[in-house]
Amino acid sequence: MAAKRIGATKIATAHNLDDEIQTFMLNIVHGDPMRIARTGPAYDEEELWFIPRVKPLCEVLEKEITLYAYLKGIRFQEFPCPYASAALRNDVRNTLNRLEEKHPGIKHTIYGSAEKIREAIKERKPKIHLNQCKACGEPTTGEICQACQLLQKIKAH
Asked: What does the alpha-carbon distance between residue 110 and residue 94 come to, in Å, rounded to a whole number?
């Protein structure tokens, strides 16, 4: 909503190479390979409701971004989520990091494979019908978007 208010034509996210390949692997592990078609370095929703997202850092390793931020004095979140160790993503992250240590460059290779798969399946991507949220007007697959549902629960307590 904020991006629309200021007239933004793109939203840049800080997703890095590690984020991208972890998500790719999680989609496979969760048995949802078609979801791969909805990710990538840039994505537009076919309906004109969303401002297109771009991921300018999607091919840069997380440790390189962290090192750059440290050297330039850019503040960043240093401590992991206290629940991260229980998440499947953490196991995937650790596995990918061990593979990269043993086989340098494998993260980039996996990313390249994900891009090839994404391209091969993009025509088979399921269409998602979007509605306008009855509370805020933003796009949602239901009647009320998840953000508004959460706000309603918070206000109820």
From this structure: 15
Residue 41 tokens, joined: 């370095």
DSSP the chain: -HHHHTT-S-EE----HHHHHHHHHHHHHTT-GGGGGG-SSEE--SSTTSPPEE-TTTTS-HHHHHHHHHHHT-----SPPTTGGGSHHHHHHHHHHHHHHHSTTHHHHHHHHHHHHHHHHGGGPPP---EE-TTT--EESSSS-HHHHHHHHHHH-
- Domains of the chain by start residue, with CATH: 2-126 (3.40.50.620), 129-157 (no CATH)
Confidence of residue 139 (pLDDT cuts 50, 70, 90): confident
Show the tokens assigned to 130: 């979007």
Q: Is the pLDDT of residue 156 over 80?
A: yes
Q: The tokens of 110 are what?
A: 């996996």
Q: Could you tell me which residues come within 8 angstroms of residue 130 by beta carbon, excluding any fewer than 6 positions away?
A: 45, 47, 49, 139, 140, 141
25-62 residue pLDDT tens: 999 999 998 888 878 776 655 555 678 889 999 999 99
